[in-house]
């Protein structure tokens, strides 16, 4: 490793988590429109691809066997079984390590278990919890999405209650009342800037 590389200040890792249906993907998409140069870690998952999702952009969709291989090769920074084993998701290690070593910020979106794992493996990570404006709003989003069966929706709601109870473990809480406002607040945290500095950044 060169001296110039060692002297680069390590980048900031921001970890975004929140209950299913809170709008994490929508906020991240808005965030990337605000700052196209921002780097977002694409998780790998064994779940089925939903309508409108793009492989390699929203997620990397892999088979259970490929996921097992990534675990065996220690290629995941964290991974977890989601919704009591319906599928698994994980965060590729190398792209994040390379990004942070270059002194650039990185954004990761995970579930609660993944956020806890990242906190243990990378204590310097800054954890952000995306919270719904109300419980009723979260229920409406999950039911109205229409992409899962009633049984899966009920399971997601049970998980959401557990996740909402853990938000005090996070360094910051962003309430997703409005996607643009939530994305702007998250951008200040990723770039580690105040709102005034962000005006200049834009």
TrEMBL record:
It is found in: Cytoplasm. SUPFAM superfamilies: P-loop containing nucleoside triphosphate hydrolases. The keyword Nucleotide-binding applies. One of its GO terms (cellular component) is cytosol. It is an enzyme of class 2 (transferase). It holds the Pfam family Guanylate_kin. It catalyses: GMP + ATP = GDP + ADP. Residues 11-191 form the Guanylate kinase-like domain. CDD domains: GMPK. ATP binds at residues 18-25. GO terms for molecular function: ATP binding; GMP kinase activity. InterPro entries: GK/Ca_channel_bsu, Guanylate_kin-like_dom, Guanylate_kinase, Guanylate_kinase_CS, P-loop_NTPase. Belongs to the guanylate kinase family. Essential for recycling GMP and indirectly, cGMP. This is Guanylate kinase. It comes from Actinophytocola xinjiangensis. The lineage of its organism: Bacteria, Bacillati, Actinomycetota, Actinomycetes, Pseudonocardiales.
